[in-house]
């Protein structure tokens, strides 16, 4: 019989924390639906709240819906270089073994997104060699997000503590795209 004393339990807990700190990891900057740890958990198969480093800023880029996702039947987010803009998002420190699952979620094997190494600022600290994903074949015009994607992105932005002004900017941009899409559909001629 093995008896676990309070001291043994503390030591075992310390070992779990120590092994997590020594585990091979990579930094990942999420700016779309992956900002929501609950949604990211669907793809990675484990709770991701513990991997959140915090809200982060990517300078020299802007958001755009320059990718159409057939699976979601709507536009999905991308980042585009723009020296006068910045993108807010969430910085994660993920276990290296999750790299394959994240690539699968971002359809890297299908040629939709690719890795891009960037620098972000999080809690006043500069993080170099951070992975994010960018669309390979960008559309010439933005495609509106669907309601589900809209809600997941906004929920992730708000619950991750992104600046309120940025959350409103994100909301307004997505809402405007949806309204434009509705207006376009409303006025298209009907087939006879």
How many domains make up the coordinates? 1
So, CATH architecture?
A: Roll
- Give, in spatial order, the strands making up the sheet with the most strands: 1-3-2-4-5
End-to-end separation: 81 Å
In total, the number of strands is 5
GO molecular function, one term: gamma-glutamylcyclotransferase activity
Pfam family, one: AIG2_2
Keywords: Lyase
Report on this model:
By secondary structure, this protein is α+β, with helices and mostly antiparallel strands. It has a single domain (24-185), classed as Roll (Hypothetical upf0131 protein ytfp), CATH 3.10.490.10. The chain contains 5 helices and 5 strands. It has a 5-stranded antiparallel beta sheet, with no helix packed on it. α4 runs antiparallel to α5. The protein is globular, with a radius of gyration of 20 Å. The model is unreliable at 1-20 and 186-192 (pLDDT under 50). Substrate binds at residues 28-33, 149. InterPro entries: G-Glutamylcylcotransferase, GGCT-like, GGCT-like_sf. The active site is at residue 106.
Gist?
The chain is α+β, with helices and mostly antiparallel strands. It has a single domain, classed as Roll (Hypothetical upf0131 protein ytfp). It is built from five helices and five strands, in the order H-E-H-E-E-H-E-E-H-H.
């Amino acid at each position: 019989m093995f008896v676990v004393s309070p001291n043994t339990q503390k030591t075992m807990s310390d070992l779990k924390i120590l092994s997590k700190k020594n585990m091979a990891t990579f930094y990942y900057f999420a700016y779309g639906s992956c900002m929501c740890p609950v949604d990211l958990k669907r793809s990675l198969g484990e709770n991701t709240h513990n991997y959140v480093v915090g809200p982060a800023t990517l300078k020299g880029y802007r958001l755009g819906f320059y990718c159409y996702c057939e699976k979601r039947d709507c536009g999905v987010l991308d980042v585009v270089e723009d020296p006068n803009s910045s993108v807010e998002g969430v910085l994660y420190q993920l276990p290296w073994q999750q790299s394959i699952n994240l690539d699968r979620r971002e359809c890297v094997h299908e040629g939709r997104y690719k890795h891009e190494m960037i620098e972000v600022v999080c809690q006043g600290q500069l993080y170099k060699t951070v992975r994010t994903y960018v669309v390979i074949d960008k559309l010439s015009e933005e495609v509106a997000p669907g309601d589900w994607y809209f809600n997941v992105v906004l929920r992730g932005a708000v619950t991750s503590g992104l600046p309120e002004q940025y959350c409103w900017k994100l909301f307004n941009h997505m809402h405007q795209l949806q309204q434009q899409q509705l207006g376009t559909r409303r006025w298209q001629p009907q087939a006879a």
